[in-house]
Specification:
heterodimer, A: 485 residues, alpha/beta, TIM Barrel, 18 helices, 15 strands, 13% strand, B: alpha/beta, 2 domains
Chain lengths: 485, 386
């Protein structure tokens, strides 16, 4: 049939000219580079191919050419869609910014019956009601919360041990629901608790009001109890019993757990993960200690460096992959958050890994003493005497004063990764974020020096590892995509 | 395979009479009688509703000639004997040509709006003709009011249906008024929707169950343009999809898998997820060996078994991305077991068949089977599941 034109008739441009789009590139290993476009899509190319690409020498017949074009790393005569598609994707990634603060943390009590040496919030001993939030303060905080434009509002009760001030939680939940009858937001409550003092009555209240439970579980009994001492030395037993009880009342999916890595954890990542698997959690969040509170005072934070933690993390990640290969579906949640950034058009909105920084504009803390802080870490830093991120007081300041405070806007502006030295040109920046609180705690300013930043080192290592894993194995890439969504 | 077109054995009507769309009725009182279009379907037991048209079959010809000497009588050959109450045919007196337009019992009925098209796809099953066929659209506007309101599905196809302009909107308005709860699926190349105003007008029709199926064959504009044989098609189609979604319309992306497209499936699914995340459905279709495909077999045909890993990866990628994905026109024995759950029985009943091997297959009832035309080129890996 002569009616049909050959494929060569549709090949453009005939003269191999193309325009480079805005993109960034950084080494992945000795031979390969990672390229990212403005929407955070990546490609891995050998150094030589990258070099010929940037020199405008890559022929359109090269296998990489078509991919560079369909992911908008280059524009040529074949299509004029690239800029519009990119714009749409950048807009999608930034979409959540317009919603402003969705996570509202209320520290209802700083008291705790545990005495964890790694406590990052500097808890107070149990009998001092001066560390409880008052009803008046809670009312003011609620009024501020509902001034947020966010269509979804999550109120998280934190401590200390928030259940030690349960009457206030009940009050806030009831009042929140009342206000929401008019406000009409998607409203959710979550209690972060060690479950040691949970009762049937508390759980029944949580059931009635659809309150979620988030608890702490560091691993098997010996490790957990060593990390988390309390009278009776039974933190693990109480946590596990509490998890079962809470699941029975609220439903399996409504109870989650977080772990913290101590020096003692480093050699036991598999048994820690096994503990989560046997308790039928859908995944684990392998978290390093943060440089705040007692963790610094007790030298727990300094007990391991980032490289040692990364060994622990990667051993854990490999083990999780092994589990999946053997038919046990299980996620590592930090990787899943990053993979959402890498593999989807969406922004997961994880406060510690956002740019502009998530402080204040994604999450905010109403402390027991009526002060408002830019993040959970910000109030931890404040307990150590550094009130850099104190935004105001619920009794004395208006919503506009608090969220327009220089103490919030300056660090957000200064730490914006798109313009920070070494971040602005980094190919991994679309997956990363800025953490001005962390860098204030460790470097004394909002930005920090990236060559010495353990935030940078830790995250860059994880980004590279995740990409390398996906490049080496399609099955892992498919698994990771399922984590990302 | 059912024959949907043919010729009447005899017809008692002047040859110069205009062609007519006829709805077959068997009882005197239908739900909404239409004297211009209702034809009494006579099978030997009379309950004459007094229609001016009568349709019968050869075995009842003598009797019908006696009973209905004053009517317009059409005698059909036996291969049309499957026709029944509620079906609609077109009759052209000059050639005594008969075409079945609508079958009440069919799993899917498609109306061809025009044979004109601005694509010339290598595998087109309905090769376009550059003719003035505006009467087709007018006929559809006549026929839609004859259909039962309970019609479960209606397809609008071509050619490129949007090329008929005003008539396209009139057809859809007519469907909105007469078939408000019937899902209407339009097969379009999407290019006309590059004009935002056209997309807005389409959405403003206000039919609740309207969707468009639009093909994309590659993430590479050169490959897509080659497959559809039209430079610039890729850009216009993608813009059309973006406009349709911007106005809130429902869009399905259709990918025909063959020798020119299978290697790019992974990049295409990635492109769809990253750039067209908002589409409602993505379907991967098998090749139908008809129309232009027969002329381009060397460029198109490959054993579906040989692209099963590419197809599996693309389907699982989109499924993991939480995009509604389906596989059409593929036999289960040619698909990786992990994507069986996405395979749909999608072939229209009149051209749907099974092979000898299928007789003993335990998955036959879940399998879409073959196009009637598939005997022209069949996978060498057809095998029954035990």
């Amino acid at each position: 049939m002569t009616r049909f034109a050959p494929a060569s008739d549709f090949r453009r441009p005939v003269d191999d000219t193309y325009q480079l789009a805005y993109f960034r590139f950084s080494p992945l290993d000795d031979e390969r580079y990672v390229l990212t476009n403005q929407a955070g899509e990546y490609l891995v190319l050998p150094r030589a191919v990258l070099a010929s690409f940037v020199k405008h020498e890559l022929p359109s017949t090269h296998p990489a050419y078509s991919r560079l074009r369909s992911r908008q790393f280059l524009f040529d005569a074949s299509s004029n869609l690239g800029r519009d598609l990119l714009a749409l994707k950048v807009r999608t990634k930034a979409k959540r910014l317009e919603n402003f603060t969705s996570l509202h943390i209320m520290v209802v009590s700083l008291r705790c019956e545990h005495s964890c040496p790694y406590c990052q919030v500097s808890r107070q001993s149990e009998d001092r009601s001066a560390f409880d939030m008052s009803e008046e303060t809670a009312e003011k905080a609620l009024a501020l919360i509902f001034q947020s434009p966010s269509p979804a509002i999550k109120i998280e009760f934190q401590g200390g041990e928030p259940l030690l001030n349960f009457p206030l939680i009940q009050h806030v939940v009831r009042r929140g629901e009342e206000i929401n009858q008019v406000a009409g937001r998607s409203l959710q409550f979550v209690i972060t608790t060690n479950l040691a003092v949970v009762t049937d009555e508390i759980l029944e209240f949580c059931r009635q009001h659809s309150v979620l439970i988030s608890t702490s579980l560091d691993g098997p009994a010996a490790l957990h109890n060593a990390n988390r001492p309390r009278p009776g030395k039974n933190s693990y037993e109480l946590a596990v019993a509490g998890i079962h009880k809470a699941r029975n009342v609220l439903g399996h999916e409504r109870v989650s757990a977080l772990m913290t890595t101590t020096k003692a954890s480093l050699s036991q990542v598999r048994t820690i993960i096994d503990e989560y698997v046997s308790l039928q959690f859908p995944g684990i969040f392998l978290r390093p200690l943060s440089p705040y509170g007692f963790a610094v005072k007790t030298k727990f934070y300094a007990a391991y460096d980032v490289d040692r933690w990364l060994d622990f993390y990667f051993e854990g990640l490999n083990y999780v992959l092994e589990l999946n290969r053997s038919g046990i579906p299980f996620k590592e949640f930090y990787a899943a958050t990053i993979l959402t950034k890498m593999l989807t058009p969406f922004e997961p909105g994880y406060v510690d890994l956002m740019s502009p920084a998530g402080i204040g504009i994604s999450a905010v803390v109403y402390n027991y003493d009526a002060s408002v802080y830019a993040s959970d870490e910000a109030r931890m830093l404040a307990e150590m005497g550094d009130k850099t991120f104190l935004l105001g007081n619920v009794h004395q300041n208006t919503y506009a004063e608090i969220f327009g405070a220089d103490a919030l806007l300056d660090p957000i502006e200064q730490s914006f990764a798109g313009s920070v030295p070494m971040c602005s040109e980094c190919a991994y920046e679309p997956f990363c974020g800025s953490d001005p609180v962390f860098h204030t705690a460790t470097h004394g300013d909002f930005v920090g020096l990236k060559t010495r930043s353990s935030f940078c080192n830790r995250n860059m290592s994880i980004f590279k590892r995740l990409i390398a894993l996906m490049e080496s194995d399609d099955a892992t890439r498919e698994l990771f995509l399922s984590w990302a969504n | 395979m059912l024959r949907l077109s043919g010729f009447a054995s005899s017809a008692y009507i002047e040859q110069s009479a205009p062609r007519s769309a006829l709805r077959l009725v068997t009882s005197p009182t239908g739900p909404n009688p239409n004297p211009n279009h209702d034809a009494y379907l006579f099978r030997g037991k009379t309950s004459d509703p007094g229609c001016q048209w009568v349709v019968t079959f050869e075995e009842h010809q003598a009797e019908a000639e006696k009973l209905f000497s004053d009517r317009r009588l059409i005698v059909l050959p036996d291969y049309f004997s499957y026709l029944g109450e509620g079906d609609v045919i077109r009759f052209a007196p000059d050639r005594k040509a008969v075409r079945v337009l609508f079958r009440k019992e069919a799993n899917a009925n498609y109306f061809l709006v025009t044979e004109r098209c601005n694509h010339l796809c290598l595998m087109c099953s309905q090769p376009p003709k550059d003719v003035d066929d505006r009467w087709l659209a007018r006929e559809i506007i006549d026929v839609l009011p004859l259909l039962p309101a309970t019609t479960p599905f209606l397809g609008i196809t071509g050619g490129e249906p949007t090329l008929v302009g005003e008539d396209f909107f009139e057809i859809l308005s007519c469907a909105r008024d007469h078939l408000p709860s019937t899902p209407i699926h339009i097969l379009s190349n999407g290019r006309t929707f590059k004009d935002r105003a056209f997309a807005q007008r389409y959405q403003a029709i206000g039919h609740r169950r309207l969707s468009v199926g639009i093909p994309i064959y590659s993430a590479d504009p050169e490959v897509h343009d080659y497959v559809v044989q039209s430079k610039g098609a890729f850009d216009e189609t993608i813009r059309g999809i973006m406009n349709l979604k911007a106005v809130g319309a429902e869009v399905e992306i259709r990918v025909v898998v063959h020798k020119q497209t299978y290697a790019g499936l992974a990049d295409l699914s990635d492109f769809i997820f990253r750039n067209l995340t908002f589409v409602d459905h993505v379907t991967f279709m098998g090749l139908e060996i008809t129309g232009f495909t027969r002329a381009n077999m060397d460029k198109l045909w490959m054993d579906p078994y040989d692209y099963r890993s590419e197809l599996r990866a693309a389907v699982q990628y989109l499924a993991a991305a939480r995009i509604n994905v389906s596989v059409y026109n593929h036999q289960l024995c040619l698909l990786d077991g992990s994507i069986h759950q996405y395979a749909k029985r999608s072939i229209s009943d009149w051209k749907n068949e099974y092979a000898d091997e299928c007789a003993s297959c335990s998955l036959r009832n879940r399998c879409g089977g073959f196009f009637s035309s598939s005997s022209l080129a069949r996978s060498s890996h057809i095998a029954a599941f035990q």
